[in-house]
């Protein structure tokens, strides 16, 4: 539905929208990737959303491993190929195993703590809340701030999935490989 903003239309507004969260080497149409290049069609919205998304990705109190489990389960629920493609690779880079990635898809794992995380995402998706028993199970591993970050990670990545799916943002060729991320400068 929406294509990435053509290179000739990148202007100072677009670069300013990316400035607070995207490294200088990625503020170019050939390095930003399809998601960012599509989001900057609305520079004011991109400039507001990207700092929040960056917090979820880099500043959150969630351990990386749990963050990626949440994102993967969220991407699965929304059928977001773009999120799944990027984050299944990122999950492996932060220590998840192939079995963990498969568990994020199936929703079932032998690890009780991970199961609480997957159940929390399932409950948020199905009923827009985490039940008291699941909140307590999460509390065996996560403090209140981490549980709050879990909920906002689900919400932020759900919003992003809605956008990526609606705009039909294609997964880049080679996404999910080390070579791809090296070429993107990350």
Automatic annotation (TrEMBL):
A molecular function GO annotation: peroxiredoxin activity
Domain of life: Bacteria
Domain annotation Carboxymuconolactone decarboxylase-like: ranges: 43-122
InterPro entries referenced in this protein's UniProt entry, alphabetically: AhpD-like, CMD-like
Protein name as it appears in the record: Carboxymuconolactone decarboxylase
Organism per entry: Mycolicibacterium neworleansense
Lineage, highest ranks first: Bacteria, Bacillati, Actinomycetota, Actinomycetes, Mycobacteriales
